[in-house]
Structures are given as C-alpha cells and as structure tokens.
Design goal:
Layout lengths: L1 H16 L7 E8 L2 E2 L5 E6 L5 E4 L5 E5 L4 E9 L2 E9 L4 E2 L2 E6 L2 E6 L1
Parallel strand pairs: 1-8, 1-9
Antiparallel strand pairs: 1-2, 1-5, 3-4, 3-6, 6-7, 9-10
Length: 113
C-alpha cells in the first residue's frame, strides 16, 4: 500500500512540475484560382520574438504549423518567387485559416476564404 501511495505522489508531483506548453496548431489550405497550390509550397509562422516555424504544403494545398506560443502571428507563404503574408491568431486549440493567393498589383496577397 505504501508503495502505491509513493508512486501516486511521485506521478502527481511530476505532473505539477512538468513545463506547461501553451501552443496551438494553425492549419488550413492554400489555393490559387480555386486550385490547390503545388505540394511543397513554403509556409512560415512567426509568433512574437520566436524564430519562424516552417512547413510545406501537401498535394491538396493543406498546411499545418505548430505555434510556439498562443497569440498574434504572421503566416508567410512563398509562392512563385513571391512572399505573401497575413495576420493570424494562434490559440491553445487548433485554428483553421483557408486562404486564396490573389494577384494584386503584380504581387500575390493572401485573402481569407
């Protein structure tokens, strides 16, 4: 019995002392002219003073990036040699952002669907 109590106390203490990770998944799709962007399109998520978190799109234009902390972030997409960006919010729960890449003034812009 004492052994079980010791294990329970040890596990409870470990849980209390474990670092709390407050990060959120930002995911969605990227399209141009209602078609998915090419697989391997570069996506970056920049939150606060943290280094960018990098990802690539899948064949269906989907992307997933894990923010290092919740809050206001910038999603950057490098597409056909240009970089388009949009402000997104990362929460502790997954957040979905679907965007269209739209040409504006000779550059691409991200427009939320």
């Amino acid at each position: 019995m004492k052994h079980r109590v010791g294990i329970a106390v040890g596990l409870f203490s470990a849980l209390l002392l474990a670092p709390v990770v407050m990060a959120g998944l930002v995911l969605g799709t990227l399209r141009e002219n209602n078609q998915p962007v090419a697989a391997g399109t570069d996506v970056e998520l920049v939150c606060g003073g943290n280094p960018p978190v990098k990802a690539k799109t899948a064949a269906d234009g989907s992307y997933k990036v894990l923010a290092k902390e919740p809050g206001k972030c910038t999603l950057r997409v490098t597409y056909k040699g240009q970089t388009a960006s949009a402000e997104v919010l990362a929460y502790e729960q997954p957040t979905k952002y679907d965007f269209d890449l739209v040409p504006e003034g000779g550059k691409y812009a991200l427009r939320r669907r």
